[in-house]
Design goal:
Strand content: 5-15%
Strand order of the largest sheet: 6-7-8-9
Shape: globular
Number of strands: 9
Order of helices and strands: EEEHHEHEHHEEEEHHH
Helix content: 25-40%
């Protein structure tokens, strides 16, 4: 599979999937072993990159592995937590504490470099909480893997002290909006984005204005969901067995009451839009949205531990990381970096 350098990154520190404590990673293609808590390690690496490039514009992406099963927090991050907590939940909280500390490190580092006023920080999560985490979805319906709000609604925080006035907004936005917003912000040429893209610029929000979306926010995963302002359409399943529902997220954020019967025209309109989205996603998967008309680098379909390319590196992993052993056959959850 292509490494981040093929996607425009000048420097990268990456792993096959999420990482835990004491991870194996690759730094610009060289396999390295780092000892420590993963969130702290990533913040330290990001700050080194920023210091090196402090005299010119830079773009840094920091993808946290935490909090992620099997949850392995540092002892210092478990101190002060109630002793009555389940061990797994306590380690989950400990990982979140480490994330909080690492973000503080990043922001403090920017202040020390004198770059905080002119640096845009965009923080968000990738999916909702897990069903074994107390109150992880704040009372919303569903969990990770679900198209209900508990599976897709996540925290979003944008900080830019030199330009954005502190405020709270309920404007519906998506991770798909990040790239269009950056393209808009930097006044990049139109061909910086493919003609077919699902996100939209939310730059007016930075100025305290309300952007206008031209189409609903789409989600597809074992079904389809569309968010159009306060209305949300949810399709669970595919084909004849699919079920559809329409919700008013302003009045019913817990998605308890289907209002499709009350608003049949909106319901049918959004169902037609959902079918268009599914067709568009399928076209993208086949490469029809790309200039070449095909997918140049297919998504990796196999579990990494079953691939010969990774199996050939097992001896190197074992030499670099004390106690490393190959994952058990068919074990896709075990933390082996």
């Amino acid at each position: 599979p292509k490494h981040p350098g093929h996607h425009g990154f000048d420097e990268w520190l990456s792993a096959t999937n999420y990482i835990e404590k004491h991870p194996l990673k690759t730094h610009n293609g060289k396999i390295v072993y780092h000892e420590g808590e993963s969130s702290i390690l990533m913040a330290e690496s990001a700050l080194r990159f920023m210091r090196t490039n402090r005299d010119r514009p830079f773009f840094a992406v920091v993808w946290y592995g935490s909090p992620h099963f099997p949850y392995t927090a540092l002892e210092e991050d478990l101190e002060g937590l109630p002793k009555s907590l389940d061990t797994r939940v306590a380690n989950l909280f400990g990982e979140i504490i480490a994330i909080d500390r690492s973000i503080g490190m990043l922001r403090q580092g920017l202040r020390e470099m004198g770059l905080d006023k002119n640096t845009l920080i965009w923080f968000c999560s990738d999916n909702g909480g897990r069903d074994h985490e107390p109150d992880s979805v704040g009372g919303l319906r569903g969990f990770k893997g679900s198209l209900y709000e508990g599976g897709i609604r996540v925290p979003g925080i944008i900080e830019w002290p030199g330009r954005i006035r502190p405020m709270v907004t309920n404007f519906p936005a998506s991770t798909m909006d990040i790239m269009p917003t950056i393209v808009d912000l930097l006044e990049l040429p139109n061909d910086s984005l493919l003609a077919v893209h699902d996100g939209e610029s939310i730059l007016p929000l930075f100025e305290g204005e309300t952007p206008k979306r031209t189409h609903p926010i789409p989600f597809t995963m074992k079904g389809t969901a569309l968010i159009d302002g306060k209305f949300k359409l949810v399709q669970i399943g595919r084909g004849r067995g699919a079920t559809w529902a329409l919700f008013d997220l302003d009045k019913d954020p817990g998605e308890t009451t289907d209002i499709s019967g009350q608003l049949p025209e909106r319901f049918e309109k959004m169902k037609a839009e959902a079918e268009t989205v599914v067709a568009s996603v399928q076209a993208s998967a086949e490469g029809k949205d790309y200039p070449e008309g095909k997918v140049i680098q297919p998504q990796r379909g196999a579990e990494w531990s079953t691939m010969k390319e990774y199996q050939a590196l097992y001896e190197t992993f074992a030499k670099l990381k004390p106690g490393w052993t190959p994952p058990a056959k068919g074990n896709t959850q075990r933390d082996q970096d």
